Amino acid sequence: MATATASPSSAGVPVGPGLSMFDPIFIGIDEFGQPVYITLAYRNLLAGGEPGGGKSGLLNCIAAHAALSVDSRLVLLDGKLVELGQWEDSADAFIGPDITAALDVLRRLQVVMNNRYAWLRAHNRRKVTALDGLSVITVLVDEIAFYSATVGSKQEEFVALLRDLVARGRAAGIPVVAATQRPSFDIIPTSLRDLFGYRAAFRCTTPNSSNIVLGHGWAEQGYSATDIAPTNQGAAYLIAEGGIPRRIKVAYLSDSQIAGIADYAAWIRRPGTITTPPSSPADWGMAA
Ligand SMILES: Nc1ncnc2c1ncn2[C@@H]1O[C@H](COP(=O)(O)OP(=O)(O)OP(=O)(O)O)[C@@H](O)[C@H]1O
């Protein structure tokens, strides 16, 4: 009878769910109790709503999927340090309340994005795919206003870099997930809002702020995040490009659940376990 023995070649193979950022990401249930999935590889997501509405819960759900995806790299910008802080060990970069460091990392991402576009153009392609061997670099920002609200040249550069990343990153495998508790035109101008393929409005205090997240006119058509009770944290209206808003309840991960997943994610990402195919463009510095 054959016995199972670990061969030396299997020593570096991670054991785990083997998720991919190209897979649908489970984020909760809809009002009929059906599971809700989003696909982030080619879309950005904006979450807005008043403090305590549950935006960080959604970001943590996405961070968990990204951390468990062996084809994903994480870049985290967290002005409060504690919202995404538990994923630090799985992230390539974790930026706290430091605008200079945030600008450095966004400039670097812009270079990676430009390199990926040059590679796509050289290969007559329009977007990266799961077969390219390039990792999806998921950028999570909690909270946009923290880096952009005050007036100054650094803040202006932050807004310009974020806008460029949101506009061009998705085809290059660099989706952006950003949250704000200040859904107002100065933080999310329409031209920026419309670049987010997914928008989630958590409880808002005015129909106007709900519209700023979801899109103009939805509140008047009966889709207003002012309807969400303050006690119903994690409830939101989610709209996907070209669709109509649907009411969802985000799956909530407690601190200890996040700690467990983050610990496991850091383990499957330990040095030497995540590799890219030898001939992949990553070797040319595309994923630097
Ligand atoms: N999906 C959910 N189900 C149940 N409770 C939730 C859910 N999401 C959030 N909560 C509760 O609401 C609290 C606040 O949530 P969260 O920190 O995600 O809000 P937020 O919108 O990110 O707030 P802020 O803008 O201040 O960062 C959580 O500590 C939790 O107790």
Please give a structural write-up:
By secondary structure, this protein is an alpha/beta fold. The protein has a single domain, classed as 3-Layer(aba) Sandwich (Rossmann fold). It has seven helices and ten strands. The protein has helices at 55-68, 99-122, 144-148, 153-168, 190-193, 207-214, 255-268, and strands spanning 25-30, 35-38, 45-48, 72-78, 91-95, 136-142, 176-180, 198-202, 235-240, 246-250. Strands 2-1-10-9-8-3-7-6-4-5 form a ten-stranded mixed β-sheet. Helix 1 (55-68) packs parallel to helix 7 and helix 2 packs parallel to helix 4 (153-168). It is globular and about 50 Å long. The relative contact order is 0.20. The structure holds adenosine-5'-triphosphate. Adenosine-5'-triphosphate (ATP) binds at residues 49, 51-57, 83, 181, 202, 233-234, 249-250, 252.
Strand and helix layout:
Blueprint: E1 25-30, E2 35-38, E3 45-48, H1 55-68, E4 72-78, E5 91-95, H2 99-122, E6 136-142, H3 144-148, H4 153-168, E7 176-180, H5 190-193, E8 198-202, H6 207-214, E9 235-240, E10 246-250, H7 255-268
Parallel strand pairs: 3-7, 3-8, 4-5, 4-6, 6-7
Antiparallel strand pairs: 1-2, 1-10, 8-9, 9-10
Helix pairs in contact: 1-7, 2-4
The structure holds adenosine-5'-triphosphate.
